Amino acid sequence: MMFDHDGVKIYYRWDGEGPPLTLVHGVGGGNDAWDSVVEDLKRDFRILRLDLRGHGQSDKVKGAYTVWDFVSDVKALLDHVGLKRTRLAGFSLGGLIVQGFALKHQEYIERLAIMAAVAGRTPEEFARVRERLAHLTAKGPLGHFEASVDRWFTPGFRAKNPDVIARRRRHAERMDPECYAAAYAVLAETDFADRLHEIKVPTLVATGEFDVGSNVRMSTVMHEAIAGSKLHIWPGLKHSMLFEAPHDVSATLGAFMRAG
């Protein structure tokens, strides 16, 4: 389904039955990144997910983005479908977006999950992500994929699941280069570490043990800033746990979201 937000067409879909759970995907991804997680959780939740602007079936908006553009799209979607309260989870860039959403529209959130996300980057970490943005801008989505696949997936998973890697490569080939770079710039330049203490809803912070870009230190920063939050580290995983270990993700996410 599509809806129009200030002239931008945003794609969204529903799955399952139960209390509402809204899912926000990562940079360069799409709503389908959650497919395996949704299969596990749709018996317990009515799940709402979208393609962010510049991604998937949503409009390929040109020009610079801000995190507040994405936050505004999520809020407009919730208003469009009539949701005034929801459980909310975001992965990677989605994890940054839901931080911003919680800071601006906390009254909409029953429980919050911030997964494989960033906050409190060091100067060295900022330099590295800006280098990745420059590489993406120069080499395009496929070049970025080839340079990043080792950071995203463990060697064992890559060896046993070449079909998954091939599908992700084809997905990268279909991405709009300008939109991908605009969204990645939001990921590279936005950091809410100094405001996370304002989040007062029940929160789960989670990442992979070997996630380099969204590392355990940053998740610990988030956990320590958000009073009463829970911290979960998926052992042995890098960044792409939605594809490499979706059942582990759904088990952790489902248990947390059912608790409320």
Number of strands: 8
Give, in order, the helices and strands.
EEEHEHEHEHHHHEHEHH
CATH superfamily: Alpha/Beta hydrolase fold, catalytic domain
Strand content: 15-25%
CATH topology tier name: Rossmann fold
CATH class: Alpha Beta
Going by CATH, the architecture would be 3-Layer(aba) Sandwich
Radius of gyration: 17 Å
Q: What is the helix content?
A: 40-55%
| Average pLDDT reading | 97
Shape: globular
Number of continuous helical runs: 10
> What is the strand arrangement across the widest sheet?
1-2-4-3-5-6-7-8
Give start-end ranges of low-pLDDT stretches: none
Largest sheet: 8 strands, mixed
As for the number of domains, it is: 1
Structural class: alpha/beta
Quote the distance from N terminus to C terminus.
Answer: 29 Å
Task: Provide structural commentary.
With 260 residues, this protein is an alpha/beta fold. It has one domain (2-121, 191-258): Alpha/Beta hydrolase fold, catalytic domain (Rossmann fold), CATH 3.40.50.1820. The protein contains 10 helices and 8 strands. The protein has an 8-stranded mixed β-sheet with strand order 1-2-4-3-5-6-7-8, sandwiched between helices. Strand 5, helix 3 (93-105) and strand 6 form a beta-alpha-beta unit. Helix 4 crosses helix 6 (162-174) and helix 4 crosses helix 7. The protein is globular, with a radius of gyration of 17 Å. 45% of the residues are buried. The model has no long low-confidence stretch (mean pLDDT 97).
In short:
Helix 1 packs across helix 10 and helix 4 packs across helix 6. The protein is globular and about 40 Å long.
